[in-house]
Write a structure and sequence with these properties.
The complex is a heterodimer of chains A (698) and B (162).
Chain A lengths: L1 H29 L2 H30 L6 H6 L6 H6 L5 H20 L10 H22 L5 E5 L2 E5 L7 E2 L15 H16 L1 H13 L5 H32 L9 H26 L3 H24 L14 H22 L15 H33 L3 E3 L1 H21 L10 H28 L8 H33 L3 H11 L1 H26 L1 E8 L3 E4 L2 E14 L5 E14 L2 E6 L2 E5 L4 E5 L1 E4 L3 E10 L6 E10 L1 H19 L10 H9 L5
Antiparallel strand pairs in A: 1-2, 1-3, 5-14, 6-7, 7-8, 8-9, 8-10, 10-11, 12-13, 13-14
Chain B lengths: L2 H29 E6 H6 L1 H4 L4 E7 L5 E3 L4 E8 L4 H6 L3 H10 L5 E7 L11 E8 L5 E9 L15
Parallel strand pairs in B: 1-2, 5-7
Antiparallel strand pairs in B: 2-4, 2-6, 3-4, 4-5, 6-7
Classes of the chains: A alpha+beta (698), B alpha+beta (162).
Chain lengths: 698, 162
Amino acid sequence: MLADFGYGILVITFLVSIYAIFASVFGQVKKSQKWIESSRLAMQLTFPLTTLASLVMIYLLVSNDYNVSFVYQVSSRAMPTYLKVTALWGGQAGSLLFWSWLLSLFMTAVTLRKWDRDREFLPWVVLVASITLAFFIGLNVFYENPFTRFWQTFSGVTPATFRPAGAIPFTPADGSGLNPLLRHPGMIIHPPMLYLGFVGFVIPYAFAIAALVTGRTDDRWTHITRRWTLWAWLFLSLGLVLGGRWAYDVLGWGGYWGWDPVEIAAFMPWLTGTAFLHSVMIQEKRGMLKHWNMILVILTYSLVIFGTFLTRSGVLSSVHSFAQSAIGPAFFIFIGLTFFASAALLIWRWPELKAEAQMTSVLSREALFLLNNLLFIAILVVCFWGVIFPLISELVTGAKVTVGPPFYERATGPLFAALVLLMGVAPLSAWGHSTLKTLGKAIVRPLVAAVIVMAAILVYFVLNPHLINGYFPYAVIGLFVTIMTAFVTLYEFWRAAEARSRAQKENIFVSLWRLAGRNRRRYGGYTIHLGVILMAVGIIGIEMFQTETQGTIAKNQSIQLAGYTMTFKELQEFDLLDARGAPMQNVTRATVDVHQNGQYLTTLYPRRDYYYDSEQPMTIPGVRSTMQDDFYILLVDWQPMSNIGATFKVYHNPMVNWLWFGSAIFILGTFIAAWPEKDPEKAPARARKSSLAYQPGD
Amino acid sequence: MSQNPRIKFILGGVMMLAAVVYLIVSSTQVSAQYFMTVNELKEKRSEALGRELRVSGAIVGESIQYDPQTLTLKFTVAHVPGDNAQIEREGGLGVVLHEAVTDPTRARIDVVYVGVRPDLMRNEAQAIMTGKLGEDGVFYADELLLKCPTKYEEAVPEQAEG
């Protein structure tokens, strides 16, 4: 039986990773290169093994083998093949297997590199990777076997790995189908991206631990892992953005981020990872913040595991959570052990990680980077507090108390604003020493431009006073900070490009292109900053100026919101068939005309699909989307008998497209920064010199 | 000169710490919601009045009234335990919800919610409501989340039960 074969593969993978752990330790103790090499090969063997196990699972899904309980849970005959494949990460057991698969992929890739200069790191990197992998595969082997089958016994049907005595296999005729909410393109890519981000951060952690153990505490580990970290960060960011887009398109509440514990769980490692990406530059340039970088990497790793734990253990109730599971304690123990072991290592090496320079000026680049880091950590603390507050309050006072989105919005809002401001100011400051005077000089032009734009915005609001609401003062502060940072960032691009274009007698765009090519990290970073600025505008727009209304109307009646008029024209009901011609989902679709100032704009079709296999509905909004705003209509209820009345919920989301557009710029910037650079030794010396000469602010 | 920047750094750090602590403490106070069961709402009424509450209960099917013109939804919920472990001990969410609705001696409370009627609004669904208790003993919900122990969440196929 194929399912048993799959389970056998998992057991072998588990044993191989355990072997890798012992071989690397033994090789280190015996100073035996052979054993170390053997542990590396064992580590690499886990990739074909997990690949095989995953392929077996995918084959079971595609071939409708509902004898396997996981296949029964997440798949059905009506589903198209690509959804059957992606159902691999549609449930707990499968997504854990998928996690292990990606982890072994990453770790194999990183152990394939040349180790000549870093031989002493190798066994420890293999060790950390193997421990992590053994843990996740172990969860599959001992608690959440994706290859569990159904067995018919005298008392009924039970899922079990091994055949209970006297039982015969039981195969349901059809599966219960993937949750329709998960049948969205965003949801198909969102989990793999998030997982790639998660497992990617295991690499810097593994090297950090190797550096701590071997005492090779120079910048070598950050140099090796820099690009890996950027890619991990890229995937994590992409995962978060896709999750937001999915929520906006599918969940039908006109929002993109709900401060759900599971969203926060994915956001927390992103916060520490982002802080790390910044502070690691200080270590490379100035030899400072070495302890801090270690702390950040250890925290990120723990938060990655914690994030997986929150999503998978059902300890917190959330829209994302799978059913309650036995893996909670296992996770808890693993996080505790790795965290304390890492902390102990760090304390042991503490004296060797002393800074090579001292911070002298509060306005220096390094001090502002430190401030940036502290702000990220402050946001992390807010998030962490919000997530664990119900547990703490129950322990301390006995009363279950929870905090909702208002808590996070109120507490993180000022911190995010400060981060955006800092994003503008920090690139203007100099390494080592800056004063208010030099900073002021650099900032004066962007500041003037920002004041002019802000004045124009204020005039717009004065002319449209109905837009002013309770959030207005905060919106003004937020917009001003954002606009000023936008100008500073653009000015930075322009200053450098202009200087180069004058010196090299090039077109300014050519200069900009070449500059960005020469110093990918810096200009990739600035591009990311521009993306964040655009996102901030979108967030201010939707968070502070969103309006909504709802109503039940008959045909040809209208609802008005924010200058738009929507008119209900028609309601249709029909079945959509799957590939075999059987009904898959029942669609109720409204036809709605949208007018603005008496002018016809478009026709939208908000609809509600009911999936027969999973017995669940899905709401698909009708959206008219422009850079200025989204007009977002949900069909929420209707009277089936008379077929004349329908209830709509209507949202007006100003500027929300800036959020998605900014996300795209953000991702583009990360690509620029993470793309492999030409070998610096091969670049012509002259070019390197000139690019150094025209780097303002360096 | 050598002492000066250090003091500035310490001062800056302390200020920042104070700001973050202030943000967390004040935001927690503003947005804290107290979990209460229906029993607790009945027993500790004075404590519950005026507070932001989060209440969970089992929906009694025949009590559901919905006026689509005013989008007013009225229904009654019966007490269910607030503790997940206890729910598990009593046989899982599905069993607990069913018993809560069929047992006439359970504490019950009327709920009013203005908004669109959610899809899962049906007998023996679990309602998780955020809102305030009115002086009239009715719970006025601002937010309504529903959970159903659906087929999807069950590992064992239905046709083979029993």
